[in-house]
Amino acid sequence: MSSNAFIFLAVRPGGGRSFGLRQAGTVSILAQSLRAEGRMLVRSWRVPSWMAREPKLALVDQAALNEQLGQLVSRGVPLVEALDVTTQTVRPVARPRVTQLRDLVQSGQGFADACKRVGGFDQVTIAVYKAAERSGDLAGAAKELAITARRRLAIGNKAITLMMYPAIVMSISLLVATFMMLVVVPMMGEGLTKSNIELPMFSKIVINTGMWMRGNVPLLLIGLLVFVGFCIVFRGAVLNGVGRLTRRLPIIRDVILAQESARFFAVMGAMTKTGVPLADALGTANQAVNHPKMRSQLERLRTRLIEGGILRMLIDEVTTLPVSTRRLLIASERSGDMESAFHTLANDMQDEVEKTSSRLLAVLEPGMIIIMFAVIGSLLLALMLPMLTLTNNIKF
User: Hey, where are the domains in the chain?
Assistant: First the structure.
């Protein structure tokens, strides 16, 4: 079913109205989702679908959903009742989606198909659910997906921690530098100019730039807005460019590869646990890999495996994986225990993310301090040079 975007007007139970923008297949589905939130649809207007991108179900909600399903279904609780309990464990923002999921399952629809219709679940999750329905082990699949979601949350939190420090330092540096260029530098420059002091070339450039910036604040704001708009409109190209740059930087490159490997092996562990054939599992798990080179090598491995290639020889060609990882996979393939290898490697790669992230943070801390002093110190130097020159020219 295609998804449409609607601007809607709804009435709250306690009175008052609310506007919103949401994706839904039809107006009736929109009304149903609002009713699950305790709101009644009054009017809706259809708009282009690109105006309302369907949000994915957050990892924290996926983890809570799968943990509850794994525990309850494994103990014999019917799926509909398990989903009813799950609506109370996820965050309020996710409850309407889980409620709709429960209603679809109660009406007789398959769980994987219901997840696909509700939206918000990625292809990997839906593929695992489909395989679990075929094997009859939905509880086991839910537990594996919960573990995978928790691992991804841990990796994501580590990435946020890594980005917070440089973001804070760079923001402070930018704010201080902007204040100095707009206020301090022009004020000092006017004083030095009135004193007829000969300014060094570097000081002239900085002072003239600061005075120009102070006199063209509206133009600078317009330029900033244009830059932000450009980044939003062409965010795909911007993110791709940043991604290419970070994948070439030594320590950051190691962190990214460890993150991608941990995600891949976690998905492979969940897929093989539910009995999905290796080639099919690779086809789905490769979608979770964002590293271009790694994804290309894994896709080639899958294609050649389907064509009849020998797995242990193909594994050795995936050079983006560490040698020790490839050797473990080859040994597991010979023993016929790939499932355990995937789980082991998922844990090992998560530990590797921790270690490489700690090393990166140890490098970032002094690096950011150096950058901050380079930005602010250069401005201070431009103001201090004329004074030092004047001091040297004084005759005692």
Answer: 4-51, 59-152, 155-396
Query: What six digits make up the tokens of 64?
Result: 């809570």
Contact 334, 316 (CB under 8 A): no
* Beta-carbon-side half-sphere exposure of residue 34 (alpha carbons within 13 Å): 28
Is the pLDDT score of 392 beyond 70?
no
Three-class SS of residue 51?
helix
pLDDT tens digit string along 30-40? 787 777 667 88
C-alpha angle 262-264-268 in degrees, rounded to nearest 5: 115
386, amino acid identity = P
pLDDT band at 93 (very low <50, low <70, confident <90, very high): confident
| Three-state secondary structure call for residue 55 | coil
Domain topology for 155-396:
Receptor-associated Protein (1.20.81)
Do 59-152 and 155-396 agree at the fold level?
A: yes
Select from 356, 141, 102, 330 the least CA-distant residue to 249: 356
**HSE-up of 69 (CA within 13 Å, CB side)?**
28
Beta bridge partners of 43: 9
Q: In this structure, which CATH number among 1.20.81.30, 1.20.58.2050, 3.90.550.10, 3.40.50.1390 belongs to the domain 59-152?
A: 1.20.81.30
| Nearby residues of 170 by Cβ (< 8 Å), 6 or more positions away | 368, 371, 372
Within a 10 A sphere around the Cβ of 346, how many other Cβ atoms?
Answer: 22
Q: Whole-angstrom Cα distance, residue 34 to residue 8?
A: 10
Cα–Cα distances in angstroms (integers) from residue 157 to residues 109, 124, 187, 312, 368, in the given order: 35, 21, 44, 34, 21
305: amino acid identity, one letter: L
Q: How far is CA 309 from the centre of its chain?
A: 35
DSSP string, 199-255: PPHHHHHHHHHHHHHHHTHHHHHHHHHHHHHHHHHTHHHHHHHHHHHHTTSHHHHHH
Spatial separation of the C-alpha atoms in residues 87 and 121, rounded to whole Å = 16
